[in-house]
Amino acid sequence: MEEVPQGCPGTGSAQAGRGASCQGCPNQRLCASGAGAAPDPAIEEIKEKMKTVKHKILVLSGKGGVGKSTFSAHLAHGLAEDENTQVALLDIDICGPSIPKIMGLEGEQVHQSGSGWSPVFVEDNLGVMSVGFLLSSPDDAVIWRGPKKNGMIKQFLRDVDWGEVDYLIVDTPPGTSDEHLSAVQYLSAAHIDGAVIITTPQEVSLQDVRKEINFCHKVKLPIIGVVENMSVFICPKCKKETQIFPPTTGGAEVMCQDLKIPLLGKVPLDPHIGKSCDKGQSFLMDAPDSPATFAYRSIIQRIQEFCGHHPPKEEHFLSS
Amino acid sequence: MEAAVEPGNLAGVRHIILVLSGKGGVGKSTISTELALALRHAGKKVGILDVDLCGPSIPRMLRAQGRAVHQCDSGWVPVFVDQEQSISLMSVGFLLESPDEAVVWRGPKKNALIKQFVADVAWGQLDYLVVDTPPGTSDEHMAAVEALRPYSPLGALVVTTPQAVSVGDVRRELTFCRKTGLQVVGVVENMSGFVCPHCAECTNVFSRGGGEVLASLAGVPFLGSVPLDPELTRSLEEGQDFIRDFPKSPAFPALFSIAQKVMSEAPARLS
């Protein structure tokens, strides 16, 4: 889709194609004809594609830097430790794609085949896709407005040949904007199991996370639960605990009680997590005895239980 | 199609600094707020424009949540966060009915509000306007730069944490600055180590070295490292003046030095 003009009213709006800022836009006639208001055919195409994907989980947060990508990567690693479980990790953070680095896949490129784009495999049963693989240099900036980002997300969902997958994990950027709306919209016919919402204990984070929870309610996205990250710091020398990010308003626990949402677990701040991510290795393997690893594993198990208790709707299987 | 730019509401602003990062959660809002407080303590009049529409953090950091925005002849009156009226603030946070209300907008609508924030807020006479941005290199950033460009020169302060994962995103932000002609005043490394209050051992919680690597990769000044300090975090949560209340904190010298460097290096408008 071409760049849209400043002041574009939106293709679904009543003013589409008719507003003053529509003059000169290459899509003006299309919008004015009402075609923009029709459902995107890609939604059905994506529904078809997703028939081979059993469970879809979105990892969200209103807030940046709380550990969404870290968590998504380790959820993927944790699930893929069972060789018989096929896992796919999709990074739709278009401006700040961290997943290639965290998964040790920097510099990898995407290949095209007859059946679409091939994900990059970390293990035989763990495939990854990110806009990071489409950039030729680590300095390349993706300076795109919303519509172009949406187009990329559509391609990722429609054109990547994931194959038979047990879990598709979708890592998102912070916020409640184009990427989030597009992910939910394009997957609307394909049934998302739910969202895992990441926060830190601070009110400044919870403040944004409550907005994200409202977003989920607005778009009718089920919430699997909340993970409180960077919960407590254990000094490697004296082993005493400090709360670097104090839960001045009670942390995720109080928020979850107030909003009646499950708290899946609390992950302590372990400096080795950052190091593992920087090296592109699984922290679960690097530090199997860390309290953070125990926390991750317990959370992963609860997510698996949720997916097991809420199987995809019957219709997806009947027609295949 | 745009009308000729009138100096209008930004005519009285001497320096405009954008606080950017490719990465989320590195402390852009924290640094923006602390920079504003430090500049105020140095006797400057400061405005803060919070263009993070999805996650507007600044009102809480300055204990200004729930304040109302009033209109005047020249447009919106920014909210003064102190009695002396030395720090003014505009944020979408003030326009929401409830703090939990989510701003679920696509790009074009975000662009429109940012343009209004730039053109229609009656800032008056300011020494510094600090513009806090959300993470990324997308609609909000392009809208802010385009709307502010007529009031050049602009300076950018780029924030990272020490981790390579952060540097990996922030170097893309530096490309954004280059492509849009934004002069980078310098790089700030935040969350740079934590000194255990029990045994004084310093741990590199978020790895180390990233800020200096980034500054040297991009050929821009490294302005300093700010360590992790739970007092700073708590102070922001409770809307207190960290600069006034915690001059003995390990974070204080770093923040103060960064403010000094901004004052000496930020490009000034020739009036």
UniProtKB/TrEMBL annotation, chain A:
One of its GO terms (cellular component) is cytosol. [4Fe-4S] cluster 2 binds at C235, C238. GO terms for biological process: iron-sulfur cluster assembly. It is found in: Cytoplasm; Nucleus. The keyword Metal-binding applies. The keyword NAD does not apply. InterPro entries: Mrp-like_CS (IPR000808), Mrp/NBP35_ATP-bd (IPR019591), NUBP1/Nbp35 (IPR028601), P-loop_NTPase (IPR027417), YlxH/NBP35 (IPR033756). Its main location: cytoplasm. Transmembrane segments: none annotated. Its cofactor is [4Fe-4S] cluster. PROSITE patterns: MRP. It comes from the Eukaryota. ATP binds at G62, K63, G64, G65, V66, G67, K68, S69. Binds 4 [4Fe-4S] clusters per heterotetramer. Contains two stable clusters in the N-termini of NUBP1 and two labile, bridging clusters between subunits of the NUBP1-NUBP2 heterotetramer. Gene3D superfamilies: P-loop containing nucleotide triphosphate hydrolases (3.40.50.300). Pfam families: ParA. [4Fe-4S] cluster 1 binds at C8, C22, C25, C31. Keywords: 4Fe-4S, ATP-binding, Cytoplasm, Iron, Iron-sulfur, Metal-binding, Nucleotide-binding. GO terms for molecular function: 4 iron, 4 sulfur cluster binding; ATP binding; ATP-dependent FeS chaperone activity; metal ion binding. Belongs to the Mrp/NBP35 ATP-binding proteins family. NUBP1/NBP35 subfamily. Heterotetramer of 2 NUBP1 and 2 NUBP2 chains. Interacts with KIFC1. Component of the cytosolic iron-sulfur (Fe/S) protein assembly (CIA) machinery. Required for maturation of extramitochondrial Fe-S proteins. The NUBP1-NUBP2 heterotetramer forms a Fe-S scaffold complex, mediating the de novo assembly of an Fe-S cluster and its transfer to target apoproteins. Implicated in the regulation of centrosome duplication. Negatively regulates cilium formation and structure. This is Cytosolic Fe-S cluster assembly factor NUBP1. It comes from Neomonachus schauinslandi (Hawaiian monk seal).
UniProtKB/TrEMBL annotation, chain B:
GO terms for molecular function: 4 iron, 4 sulfur cluster binding; ATP binding; ATP-dependent FeS chaperone activity; metal ion binding. Its cofactor is [4Fe-4S] cluster. Its main location: cytoplasm. GO terms for biological process: iron-sulfur cluster assembly. Binds 4 [4Fe-4S] clusters per heterotetramer. Contains two stable clusters in the N-termini of NUBP1 and two labile, bridging clusters between subunits of the NUBP1-NUBP2 heterotetramer. Keywords: 4Fe-4S, ATP-binding, Cytoplasm, Cytoskeleton, Iron, Iron-sulfur, Metal-binding, Nucleotide-binding, Nucleus. InterPro entries: Mrp-like_CS (IPR000808), Mrp/NBP35_ATP-bd (IPR019591), NUBP2/Cfd1_eukaryotes (IPR028600), P-loop_NTPase (IPR027417), YlxH/NBP35 (IPR033756). The keyword Transferase does not apply. Belongs to the Mrp/NBP35 ATP-binding proteins family. NUBP2/CFD1 subfamily. HAMAP family: Mrp_NBP35 (MF_02040), NUBP2 (MF_03039). This is Cytosolic Fe-S cluster assembly factor NUBP2.
